[in-house]
Amino acid sequence: xxxxxxxxxxxxxxxxxxxxxxxxxxxxxxxxxxxxxxxxxxxxxxxxxxxxxxxxxxxxxxxxxxxxxxxxxxxxxxxxxxxxxxxxxxxxxxxxxxxxxxxxxxxxxxxxxxxxxxxxxxxxxxxxxxxxxxxxxxxxxxxxxxxxxxxxxxxxxxxxxxxxxxxxxxxxxxxxxxxxxxxxxxxxxxxxxxxxxxxxxxxxxxxxxxxxxxxxxxxxxxxxxxxxxxxxxxxxxxxxxxxxxxxxxxxxxxxxxxxxxxxxxxxxxxxxxxxxxxxxxxxxxxxxxxxxxxxxxxxxxxxxxxxxxxxxxxxxxxxxxxxxxxxxxxxxxxxxxxxxxxxxxxxxxxxxxxxxxxxxxxxxxxxxxxxxxxxxxxxxxxxxxxxxxxxxxxxxxxxxxxxxxxxxxxxxxxxxxxxxxxxxxxxxxxxxxxxxxxxxxxxxxxxxxxxxxxxxxxxxxxxxxxxxxxxxxxxxxxxxxxxxxxxxxxxxxxxxxxxxxxxxxxxxxxxxxxxxxxxxxxxxxxxxxxxxxxxxxxxxxxxxxxxxxxxxxxxxxxxxxxxxxxxxxxxxxxxxxxxxxxxxxxxxxxxxxxxxxxxxxxxxxxxxxxxxxxxxxxxxxxxxxxxxxxxxxxxxxxxxxxxx
Length: 644
Known about the structure:
Layout: H1 2-12, H2 18-35, H3 42-58, H4 64-81, H5 88-104, H6 108-127, H7 137-145, H8 147-159, H9 163-172, H10 176-185, H11 187-190, H12 193-215, H13 221-242, H14 251-256, E1 262-269, E2 274-280, E3 287-290, H15 293-312, H16 314-319, H17 321-331, H18 334-339, E4 347-351, H19 378-381, E5 386-388, H20 392-398, E6 408-413, H21 422-431, E7 435-440, H22 446-450, H23 453-457, E8 460-464, E9 466-468, E10 478-480, E11 499-501, H24 502-505, E12 515-519, H25 538-545, E13 549-553, H26 559-575, H27 580-593, H28 596-604, H29 610-618, H30 633-636, E14 639-643
Parallel strand pairs: 1-4, 4-5, 6-7, 6-8, 8-12, 12-13
Antiparallel strand pairs: 1-2, 2-3, 9-10, 10-11, 13-14
Helix pairs in contact: 1-2, 2-3, 3-4, 4-5, 5-6, 5-8, 6-8, 8-9, 10-25, 12-13, 15-17, 21-26, 26-27
């Protein structure tokens, strides 16, 4: 045991020569194996083999090829003891290590087999955690811990030119929790009634059996565990017949349902490169663009600079936003990506990954040859709209939500009484709808929002208030409602505090809602540091709650420009009958290109009070008539349309 621990210490040692430290580690592990032999100490022996394999994998001296062969031999020996049935986690770890060793040795077929075995085991372990058991967080933690194996598999698939399989593993590596929550909430609307009933019966029986095992009440735990595995298999097979999702996601079935004028660009960040998958309904197999090592380093540097400026030097960040977008466009080769999309595709769906969720990709400058120089930014190239989705699977799920009606509005208006232009925004938007329920100022308390029947039946939910993203604890990100003067308990037994958090949003029921608009700061930021279910933020809460689409912001936005943008967005949506993506994109271009004179004329024609119009125009008095006050992307690019 001491030699094993000493070997681990040498492996992790920071001081001294790295190569010598690894040699010392190998010597210690080999000494440990002289005492802890396989027959009397099988578990300890196998553990040391894994450690020794790791030391050989990282070894600096000697021939690289031989070191990898030695590492593989150690992992194979450990695998004989740590079988999948008896030690599923250890088995998955060993297969994971084997996968990376084979990958380094350029033996991609064997790497594929090892990664596949590890992933199937991880997904089996994840499946054992029952939704509704109160421990769903373990699913996210499990997925995050094992995310590296998916990255290895994606790279291996590309090395084997299995492009379709690569996308399927990209999809399997993220948004698993959200997909599962939506399926559980929408079971009866996604599937035929008899299928939904059968799926629910499977879930209930699996949950009850799992509870018996965990509570030690099963008469024969092994037999029951086997039965539960059979039930899971039957449940998965039934679900897959109607909606291939999760581990059974099929790219070709998803692709076939795309219309002929839509293109999808899906990004994926591995340990050392940025991958971009480009496809349409007509693409035989997705086109893949892979960043060069120097581009990936520039990308990391660009992201770090962006975050530092945003959180520490807001003025500097705002002033250099245009420059940063130009740099990002160059680093990710947006022009090369766009050139791969057929000219007849006039609609684009972007699926970012991790840090790319931070950026308004729709506002990236382009120099596309297709448009002979007429395109300036991405949304110029796609007149049928640029929108976003967290994953293909989530897009597939929200498209099952058919919400044709759009006449009833539920709005929250300036609950903190410190937003100057919010009242103008909501009052004008309200006039576009046949029926509207508005909770204004101190009426917009948390309890009044959460238990309001009009929220449940609304076709559109509009929150015009403050919002913030909690990077330390994303589930605590919130919309700020009216403060509560005295503590009181609402129907769900939680104390009202004036914060509508992500955790509370998950519990809302928006079963008639077609659109949620979060006209507030930072409502579109997500937990970009999470490497598994990385789409954790306010939009995910409203998608789970029932809305097929969410409009949200990527930074701290300007009050007046936001009010004008939102009014124009709804004007386009309801009076000109544009699609959501087009209505938002056109509103953004309008705000960007409008002169002071044009903005004042637009304000004069709004159904608002004289005072509201006067106060709004007063903010523009320092500009000349021909100036474009909101030309900077800071004023118009923050808002993204996510979902359907």
